[in-house]
Write a structure and sequence with these properties.
By secondary structure, this protein is an alpha+beta fold. The chain folds into 2 domains: about 15-155, 60s Ribosomal Protein L30, Chain: A, CATH 3.30.1330; about 175-200 and about 200-455, no CATH class. Helix content is about 50%, strand content about 10%. A 5-stranded mixed β-sheet has the order 5-2-6-7-8. The longest helix is centred in the middle third of the chain and has 24 residues, at about 205-225. The chain is globular and about 70 Å long. The protein starts with a helix and ends with a helix.
Length: about 450
Amino acid sequence: MFLSIFEIFKIGVGPSSSHTMGPMLAAARFLDLLRDSAFSANGLRCSLHGSLAFTGKGHATDRAVILGLAGFRPDSFDQDRAEDELAQITRTRQLSPAGLPTLAFDPAQDLVFDYDHPLEGHANGMILNALDRSGDVILQETYYSIGGGFVLTEAELGRDHSPRLPTNVPYPFRTGAEMVAMATRSGKSIAQMKWDNEMSAQSHPALAGGISRVWEAMNACIERGLHRDGLLPGGLNLRRRAHRIHQQLLSERGQNLAAPHVINDWISVYAMAVNEENAAGGQVVTAPTNGAAGVIPATLRYYLDHVPLAQPGKVADFLLTAAAVGGLIKQNASISGAEVGCQGEVGSASAMAAAGLCEILGGTPAQVANAAEIALEHHLGMTCDPVRGLVQAPCIERNGLGAIKAVSAASLALRGDGQHLISLDACVETMRQTGLDMSHKYKETSLGGLAVSVPNC
């Protein structure tokens, strides 16, 4: 399956691509299904299962479902309008989505967190029902939020998916080895091959403009996070730190007093700014998930702001290369914390960022693959254990460290010839197997790890 860069990088809403964006999209899809049906519904009901139930409230899954059933979508999300709509739905116990009659929906009764009946298809499962006036189910669909904002119905999950891009793309690599081999034979970089594949489905202006919008949204998220202060929502009473750290770093500039390792603080603060915005429910770009949304923007800002002779024109090559690696990981393993733990989220993001940075610093295709492998290898086994189910601790700092690892991995790869004991493909497969072996307690359920070790949470 070939994934477009715009499927890896989606402009959406925090705090979670799988627990917020995915359920909102699923609800929107159910509305479309209802509009196309011959049924006249009187009300709606939703049940959340598995990880969506266990950490749904901390990830704002309940809000996402309600807003999705009201007609909101992640890519056009208006936070102020959403707050007004939520208050009205809570008061009236009714939904008024476009193209449908007013529908009964009591959030306290019709949105069920089912902790006892996980669905077989995926850890992130939800069932949506349309009801008649008697309360009988007239339409039902099961959806799975499989990570990165991707949503599949039960039927879609069970069949071989057709490619998202045409099957006749010029460089149909499905593994890291194939990617490097095709680049070597063609004389093209990984970014150039990914560009050519994307051009099979869209025009040059659409592709270039879309990539620019992705980076603009990422960078705008960094800037908002660097300039906002206060407590994050959710009850942990965590204060935003990026603004204060950024002010300290700015005040130290030009004093020739800072140790060289302070560059790590710059990398971290860019990532933390993004993930604080994500934790607050702001607009972010999945990269490849919301929980890992800070790694790639932080690595790019490090390049643009701190690497001598950095070229803004290389941003597209960075993102194209990162998307190529992200597609391989998603296709051959997973980017979902509910499936494989945080190794699939921050680990994947770090591998993607390392590949992108290595590419624009002049790395060969073999070095780019090596950079991705180094970054992913040193996230293997990382659990997803958010405290109180919130995408805050340890997630925000973890993005900073993921970006630092990405920069280090790219640097190490550039000092080698691309040959490495462990291949990218072997590392991706190891991540998949590790995820299968990992206890469900450590896969976005908040039933183990830090989630149960922090006092008073």
